[in-house]
Amino acid sequence: MGEQLSIVGSGVIATGLAAVASRMPGHRLWARSPASSERAKRAIAKACERLGEGYEPDHVTITLDLDELSSGSFFVEAVAEDLPLKRALLAKLNKIAREDAVIATTTSSLPVVELATSSGRPDRFVGLHVFNPVPKMKLVELAFPKDASPDTRARARALCVGLDKEAVEVPPLAGFVVNRLLFPYLFGAVEYLESVELPPEAVDQCMQNGAGHPMGPIALLDYIGLDVSVSIGDALGLEVPQRLRDLVAEGALGRKTGRGLYPESTYS
What we know:
The protein is an alpha/beta fold.
């Protein structure tokens, strides 16, 4: 892989991407605080250990100074699904990135064209939607604004090959392919669960064993995070089940908080 990544963010997508890229040196990851920096360091080390020989956490430098990312050739914004936050951050990246650098966003539900405009370089911009957990999931949805240059398109595809991912070019519509088709199904499963007397594991077992899904819809929502799921649903203009909004208001966000659509005993 010829690109040096400058990854902006320290969550599961950012650290997973950093780990996958760590076969080659020279990458940097920006974390917002010392605490998030330490969490990112541990997450990258753990992911590299699972990936096996050749993946080196020392190939990723973690910094608290955004300006230290300036030497990267390929910037990847991987912060929360918040449009104003992403727009402001992309504008900052445009100022510090070198002229030939490509800027990517890992958004799963926000409009790529609008984010490309905010970056100030729509000719060097791409939606790079990787999936969680990044080390395991092969698919990358590539979404280019119409102004993306041939060089940008070629480099984005080459990056996916270098990361051992399978890229599919999709229209730059909010939600791309996967989330546009997936979330109506997930929300429908919640509505179904609310209307019948079945435990969540029964619904999940039916979809796993009957439809061949690797994870049932209720468990998947808890895995994604109910707060993230609500944000994606709102961004796509879907009718989000009230049960999800109520759980988010209670702080029950799924696996990451130990309780969600599944009870606390599931994750304790």
